[in-house]
Amino acid sequence: MMSPQEQINNLTEKLNYYNHQYYQNSVSEVTDFEFDQLLVQLQELEKQFPQFSRPDSPTHRVGGTISKEFPSVTHIYPMLSLGNTYSEEELSDFDERVRKGLNNEAYEYICELKFDGVALSMRYENGILEKGVTRGDGVRGDDITANVRTIRTMPLSVRGNNIPVKFEVRGEGFMPLSSFDALNKEREDIGEALLANPRNAASGTFKMQDSGVVARRKMDCYVYSFLSDDEVFETHEESLIWMKERGFNVSPTWKKCQTVEEVFEYIRYWDTERHKLPLNTDGIVIKINSFDQRRELGFTAKSPRWAIAYKYKAEAATTLLESISYQVGRTGNVTPVANLKPVPLAGTVVKRASVHNANEIERLDLRIGDWVFIEKGGEIIPKITSVDLSRRTSDLETIIFPDTCPECGTGLIRKEGEANHYCPNEKGCPPQIKGKIEHFIQRKAMNIDSLGSETINVFYQKGLVKNPADLYDLQYDDLIVLDRFKEKSVKNILEGVEKSKTIPFKQVLFAIGIRYVGATVAEKLTSYFKNIDAIAAADLQALISVPEIGERIAQSVVEFFQETENQEYIARLRQAGVQLEQEDEELVSEGNALEGKTFVISGVFQNFERDDLKRKIEANGGKVLSGVSGKLNYLLAGDGMGPAKLEKATKLGVQVISEDEFLEMIK
Ligand SMILES: NC(=O)c1ccc[n+]([C@@H]2O[C@H](COP(=O)([O-])OP(=O)(O)OC[C@H]3O[C@@H](n4cnc5c(N)ncnc54)[C@H](O)[C@@H]3O)[C@@H](O)[C@H]2O)c1
Ligand SMILES: [Zn+2]
Q1: pTM
Q2: Rounded Cα distance, 112 and 170, in Å
Q3: CB of 369 within 8 A of CB of 376?
Q4: Where's the active site on this chain (predicted)?
Q5: pLDDT tens track for 531-557
Q6: For domain 4-60, which CATH number applies: 2.60.40.1180, 1.10.287.610, 2.40.30.10, 3.90.76.10?
Q7: pLDDT digits (tens, 9 = 90+) for 87-126
């Protein structure tokens, strides 16, 4: 038995570690429920043995921290956490404390959904969005203004009468489920590890250095509070209405409640309805409406006394694990999928659950015939959380992960340090071949919409297409003899294939299907190297010097072009007439104001996309370099520029100029 002091130490360290993983690395190693229970345990021990409570205890601090990658900003009003509960009983206790705290005065609550993302603070001055900051440790946060500006629903300026000179709004930045699904689909397509859930994805995204990438992820934010030194509003309700009117994205799901019973109704209503919203929610937040009464109730070190979060427990069910099937993806990774005895859970009937990989099977000690607990947490596909060992009959066999591919029989491999098994038979494994062709024809790639996965399956079965390049050899006579292919559809298909020859090179490069080369990476490689031969000829070093191309991607590109079969594949695409170089956009000279001057561009700009800016510099006789060196003339600094670049430039005496200063130079 551990002594109370040991228990307190133990829990403090464990929780601090989970906090670190959660806020710093955007990873949840335990469920929120488990985390919150451990926290309650610690709170209770500390209450009994206050002498052992540690100064670094998570019970009296906000869990997050600031990072080194962004400048930090001190909050004008600290950004606190919320007390939370999972039970209606404790909610009644909260209501009782409020009643006492307000000496039996009348009061109202505003109920809102608890959106599952990351807290953001937006500062406005003279109606202009000046800063976007994360919660950080509650006192200071990361300045992620450039990333916040990519949120399309966040007004960059607010106009009208009665706008305080300075005010702050707060909200929950989130990744809409649609963006999350699209992102994971894309990651699966190029062989990247999938993101665990939208919350962690949002937290990781808002901490990215390249706000261009953040913009593409289509982040959003629901705004839920207004702060200002002036007493502008008497109630929270007024402020919500005002913010909505001024163009802020206020979720229409809030409700004013006069009694705690009405609060319970709200909780029950949203327990099921929340699954229809475009984002994940993990509970509701109950707040006192009157600002005067909020001041009366005040704060603890960690959270307001005038609000509380009621959290929904992740919905769970038990069912029978009937079998495991193994799916082979386009890039050859083999994923186990649990086939379950159908069971209702959170509004749908669940038949399958994801198990991720072999480690997960081992960790859970899964056996066919086991009764398992499944949960629908932040994730969309339910997952198995544990086995009900009390119901296990003695003779269940352990699951042995197959050592050969279920589709083609090739021996599976597992790369050093990776959890996934792969089928290496890229050129002969049916789902990999079909997957490659499906990848090739998709909208963001060759955009051949007259083809679909069923047609591809037929073509593959008939031996007509084994490689995307085969599409360009398809003949009318080969297709018209197939069942169900009428003249019109055959013509459509051939026309679609023909039209794809005009698709620009950056899309072709993505279509080719090099592991880890997504649409964005393909674009970066294209604008740097201009044509496929230059990319094929580039060595690891050259590839890594392209902005935002890391070693892993570079390695994958090098390996791809080393293979003879891939060289043949490219040669056939070339012969077919597919675009393998970037069309030069006519460079019209605008003068020679920048003659002999060199520039490095960093960050995001108000008036230009990066490529436009580059063209602008070249059109005026200047040159754009990729890295900061002593010879460089100017570092052209946009929003959200990496501090490392700035530091280097300053050290080397390179002049740092703003977008306005640049525009001045070419006027
Ligand atoms: N699983 C893990 O490993 C792990 C680790 C650390 C923390 N956590 C979870 O995070 C929680 C602690 O995080 P926290 O301190 O941010 O508290 P919290 O998330 O429980 O509550 C505070 C936050 O709620 C958010 N929020 C969403 N909708 C809101 C609304 N309508 N009004 C006001 N705020 C709203 C805000 O971002 C605010 O900062 C824990 O209770 C735990 O569940 C989990
Ligand atoms: Zn295979």
Answers
A1: 0.78
A2: 14
A3: no
A4: 114 (n6-amp-lysine intermediate)
A5: 999 999 999 999 998 877 899 999 999
A6: 1.10.287.610
A7: 999 999 999 999 999 999 999 999 999 999 999 999 999 9
Contact between 280 and 346 (Cβ < 8 Å): no
Q: How remote is the CA of residue 82 from the centroid of ligand 1, in Å?
A: 7
Q: Are 566 and 548 in contact (CB under 8 A)?
A: no
CATH topology of domain 430-576: DNA polymerase; domain 1 (1.10.150)
- Note whether ipTM > 0.90 here: yes
Point out the ligand 1 atom lying closest to the alpha carbon of residue 117. 37
Binding-site residue positions: 32-36, 81-82, 112, 135, 172, 287, 311, 405, 408, 423, 429
The answer to whether residues 8 and 53 touch, using CB atoms and an 8 Å cutoff, is yes
DSSP string, 422-470: E---TTT-HHHHHHHHHHHHSTTTT--TT--HHHHHHHHHTTS-SSGGG
Q: Find out whether the beta carbon of 82 lies less than 6 Å from any atom of ligand 1.
A: yes
Instruction: Decide: 211 and 610 in contact? Cβ < 8 Å.
Output: no
Q: What tens digit of pLDDT does each residue of 608-638 get?
A: 777 778 888 988 889 998 888 888 999 998 8
Which of 146, 191, 148, 183 has the alpha carbon at shortest distance from 168? 148
Q: Selecting from 3.40.50.2300, 1.10.357.10, 2.40.50.140, 2.40.50.220, what CATH number does the domain 315-414 have?
A: 2.40.50.140
Contact between 582 and 558 (Cβ < 8 Å): no
Nearest protein CA to atom 26 of ligand 1, as residue: 114
Distance CA 599, CA 638 (A): 13
